[in-house]
Structures are given as structure tokens and as C-alpha cells.
Design goal:
With 438 residues, the chain is of the alpha+beta class. It folds into two domains: 14-171 and 279-334, Bira Bifunctional Protein, Domain 2 (BirA Bifunctional Protein, domain 2, 2-Layer Sandwich), CATH 3.30.930; 345-437, Anticodon-binding domain (Rossmann fold, 3-Layer(aba) Sandwich), CATH 3.40.50. It has helices spanning 14-33, 47-53, 59-63, 71-80, 97-106, 152-169, 189-202, 209-217, 228-235, 246-261, 307-310, 325-334, 357-369, 383-392, 403-408, 429-437; strands at residues 37-38, 44-46, 67-68, 90-92, 117-126, 138-147, 176-182, 267-268, 280-288, 297-303, 318-324, 345-351, 374-376, 395-401, 410-415, 421-425. The protein has an eight-stranded mixed sheet, sandwiched between helices. Strands 13-12-14-15-16 form a five-stranded mixed sheet, sandwiched between helices. Strand 15 and strand 16 (421-425) form a beta hairpin. Helix 1 (14-33) packs antiparallel against helix 6 (152-169). Bound molecules: adenosine monophosphate (AMP). Residues 95, 127, 129, 134-136, 139, 141, 275, 297-300, 322-324, 326-327 line the site of adenosine monophosphate.
């Protein structure tokens, strides 16, 4: 039986893979203008990093991590009952922030007094979620992290930059909503969390079992519950905006003023708490209204001023976001975006018979060396089916080479768009292509 890709994973076929390269390049260009430089961290990290960084009680860590055990450790576990020690427990990264912050701490990228480190990454993330439209077990994120600055200008410029990126890739502004909230800090959040818990305890009979369990560990996650009864109860819960400390309020107001000044439209959403424990102060999410069902977040992030300490570094404020490539593609499809056809062929060299094949092969190389995308037949097709193939490849021109042409030192160059033909000297084909394409 044929083996298929695992559930929740997808192959990116050439058109899609080329679009991914383009998409990633656009991010590198847009974020580069804001000073973000690429970083590549391993796809696997010690499980402990995610437990400490993201939080043991989060869905991502408690239920969704793929934990990798090397063959030898697995054998020892199964055959000798010896469980791997903490350091040899590795997990596939479920998100990019924890690994990036680990790298910043490990390589001391933000020494005291240094400018903030602005980093961007792009690549696969892994979560053992139940697959559905827009939700995969291996998916692709592009993310940025800025470490070493707590000023609201960093929050605002990251949000502005994200919105510029969506615009640049072609997601219409009126198809997306930017949601904004502040989650407070270690000064004001604990008291707020207690108020929410007390409120939930009072309304316990109306909440689902999951929310009641959340009330014990992280009551704020109940704002995320999709259950309508829970949503109705939580609409009356105390709002974080009424319980921010002065510093957090000032920070939040400054972020909003900067966004207003830049003409960025946002909606304040007290329900926006995000799923990961590390967020403090600013959180934001970009959602699409149409065509994506429940998986409508195409990007989101926030500030995490305590994360560096959680993973063993010195106090280093941070802020970041990640956007999902697959969901952006869905949003582009819903907006009727025309994806460029990946395959381009500037010239197809067709052989009338086998005797001209060597010269055709040399011509193809000459054209490629000059930077033109050039192809020929490699399957002994008839001339007719070589034309069909050229058509399939989207060849703009076909150079026909037969014994007569070879004797004359020319090729018959056919423009597939206008259907006109002209004889061109073999040593002038490259020049002719250059003129035609320019
Ligand atoms: P998060 O790290 O959960 O804040 O996710 C950031 C972005 O990654 C989301 O807004 C989505 O666009 C994307 N994303 C998260 N989880 C998945 C998933 N399971 N499948 C596809 N995209 C995802």
C-alpha cells in the first residue's frame, strides 16, 4: 500500500513551494526595513524550554507537543524501563518564540546597554492538534522577536510592520481585523486574575467543565471558550482594562496613540488573552472574517517581558508575533488573489530529429548560462508532442532545430504568443531572447 504524508501535514508542491519562497522573501524585505535580521534555531529543543517558557498548563504544552525520543533512548525506555532524563527529552518546536529567546540568552545577544536584538525566523512548527481547515500538525510560521526594549514604540512598530506585510502580500485591509488588548503585568494581573476567578466561582453552574478547570489554573483562558453559554457569562466578567496598574495603562495608551498616529485601525478586545502564558501587557491578533471558519487568526503576538528570565537569562523585555503561512494562503484565496504561475519557460528548443540533438543541447546550455529558463525534450518525443510539451511548460518561444537549419547555422524561432516565426542565427539566439524579453 502506498504511504501518504502523516495526518495534518501537507506537501508544498512546486507552485506552492515557490509561492512560499516569495512570501518569505516579502517578509524578509518588509521586516528588514525595520531592522529585523534572520535567525535559524533548531526544530527540536529540550522539552523543558517549552514547559518553562510557554507554561505547563497551556494547551500547547500539556496536550499538543510532539516529543521526540532518540532510537537508543526509546529502546532503553521500552526494554529496560529507564525513562529519558530531563535533558534528553526533546520536543519539536510548537512555536518560535521560546527557541529564539533561548538563543538570545545563550549567545548573550543583548548585552547590558546594547541596542535591542531584532530577529526574524521562518519555518515549520509542530502541534498535535485535531487537523481541520486551517489547522495542521505541521504548519509554517514567520515570526519576529525584539528583545531588550520595553518602550511602546517597539509594540507599535511591530504591529504597523505586520499590517504592512499583509498589505504587501495582497491580503485586503478590509478583509482583516486587528484586535488589541493589554494583559497587564505581574503587578496588576494576579489581582485581576483573582477577580475573574471569584466571578467564575459565583457563576460556576453556567460554565462548561473545561472552563471550571481553567478557573483553577488560568481563569483568563475562559475568555477564549467557544461555548456560547460560557461566552455569555464571560461577557459580564471584570475587564482587564479596568484593572491595569498605572504603568501598564500608560504603556497601553501610548501604543494606541502611536497606532492612531500611524492611521492603523484596531479594535480593542478585552477577550483577547492568547493561549500562551508568557504574554504581558500588549497582545494583538489579526483575524479574517470570511471563508476560514473557526481558524480565522492569521497572525498574532504580544509582549513577554518575563520570558527571558523564565528560560534562565537576565531580565530582558521582549515582544514578538508570528503569522501563519497556510492561513494567509486561505485568506488570499478567499479574497480571490491571483497566485502567479510558478512555472516560466523563456525558450523551448525542439529537435526535428536525433541528429540535431547535440547542437540543441548546447544551445539550451548557452541560453541557461545567459540566465534564461530554457528546456528541451529528454524523452525522444515527436516534433508535434514537443510543441505540446512546450505549451504545457508555458514556453514563450520555441526554437526549432532540424538538419536544414543546422546546415544553415540557424534556428526557426517561433513566438508562441503571436504565432510568428523568424529564422535566427544560432549564435544570435541569446541576444534575440534578451531583446524580446526586455
Ligand atoms: P500562535 O503561535 O498560536 O499565536 O499562532 C500564530 C499564528 O500561527 C496563528 O495566527 C495562525 O496563523 C498560525 N497557526 C497556529 N497554529 C496553527 C495550526 N495548527 N495550523 C496552522 N496555522 C497555525
Amino acid at each position: 500500500m502506498a504511504i501518504n504524508a502523516p495526518k495534518g501535514t501537507r506537501d508544498l508542491l512546486p507552485d506552492q513551494a515557490l509561492f512560499w519562497n516569495q512570501f518569505r522573501q516579502t517578509a524578509t524585505d518588509v521586516f528588514g526595513v525595520y531592522g529585523y535580521l534572520p535567525i535559524e534555531t533548531p526544530l527540536i529543543e529540550q522539552t523543558e524550554l517549552f514547559v518553562r517558557g510557554i507554561g505547563e498548563a497551556t494547551d500547547v504544552v500539556s496536550k499538543e507537543m510532539f516529543t521526540a525520543i532518540s532510537g537508543e533512548n526509546l529502546r532503553r525506555w521500552v526494554e529496560e524501563g529507564e525513562a529519558p532524563d530531563a535533558k534528553s527529552r526533546l520536543s519539536l518546536r510548537p512555536e518560535g518564540t521560546a527557541g529564539t529567546v533561548r538563543a538570545v540568552v545563550q549567545h548573550d545577544l543583548v548585552p547590558q546597554g546594547a541596542a535591542p536584538a531584532k530577529l526574524m525566523y521562518a519555518g515549520p512548527m509542530f502541534r498535535a492538534e485535531r487537523p481541520q481547515k486551517g489547522r495542521y500538525r505541521q504548519f509554517t510560521q514567520i515570526g519576529v522577536e525584539c528583545l531588550g526594549a520595553e518602550e511602546p514604540t517597539i509594540d507599535a512598530e511591530a504591529i504597523i510592520m505586520l499590517m504592512r506585510f499583509y498589505e504587501k502580500v495582497g491580503i485586503p485591509r478590509d478583509a482583516i481585523r486587528l484586535l488589541l488588548n493589554s494583559m497587564g503585568c505581574e503587578q496588576c494581573r494576579p489581582a485581576y486574575r483573582d477577580r475573574v476567578k471569584a466571578y467564575m466561582d459565583e457563576r460556576a453552574g453556567e460554565l462548561c467543565g473545561t472552563c471550571m478547570a481553567r478557573a483553577e489554573v488560568n481563569p483568563l483562558r475562559a475568555f477564549d471558550c467557544k461555548n456560547q453559554a460560557c461566552a455569555a457569562v464571560m461577557a459580564g466578567a471584570p475587564k482587564i482594562s479596568d484593572h491595569l496598574c498605572d504603568d501598564c495603562r500608560e504603556h497601553y495608551e501610548a501604543v494606541k496613540a502611536l497606532l492612531d498616529g500611524a492611521g492603523v485601525v484596531y479594535e480593542e478586545d478585552y477577550k483577547l488573552v492568547r493561549g500562551l502564558d508568557y504574554y504581558t501587557r500588549t497582545v494583538f491578533e489579526v483575524q479574517v472574517d470570511d471563508g476560514m471558519g473557526a481558524q480565522n487568526a492569521i497572525g498574532g503576538g504580544g509582549r513577554y517581558d518575563k520570558l527571558a528570565e523564565e528560560v534562565g537569562g537576565r531580565p530582558t523585555p521582549g515582544l514578538g508575533f508570528a503569522l501563519g503561512f497556510e492561513r494567509c494562503v486561505l485568506a488570499l484565496e478567499a479574497a480571490g488573489h491571483e497566485f502567479p504561475r510558478a512555472q516560466r519557460c523563456d525558450l523551448f528548443v525542439a529537435c526535428v530529429d536525433d541528429l540535431v540533438r547535440a547542437r540543441a543541447f548546447a544551445l539550451v546550455q548557452e541560453c541557461r548560462d545567459a540566465g534564461f529558463i530554457c528546456e528541451m525534450d529528454h524523452q525522444k518525443r515527436s516534433l508535434k508532442s514537443q510543441f505540446k510539451l512546450a505549451d504545457k511548460l508555458g514556453a514563450a518561444r520555441v526554437a526549432v532545430l532540424g538538419p536544414d537549419e543546422l546546415a544553415e547555422g540557424v534556428a526557426t524561432l517561433r513566438d508562441m504568443g503571436t504565432h510568428t516565426e523568424a529564422k535566427v542565427r544560432l549564435d544570435e539566439v541569446v541576444g534575440e531572447l534578451g531583446r524580446a524579453i526586455l
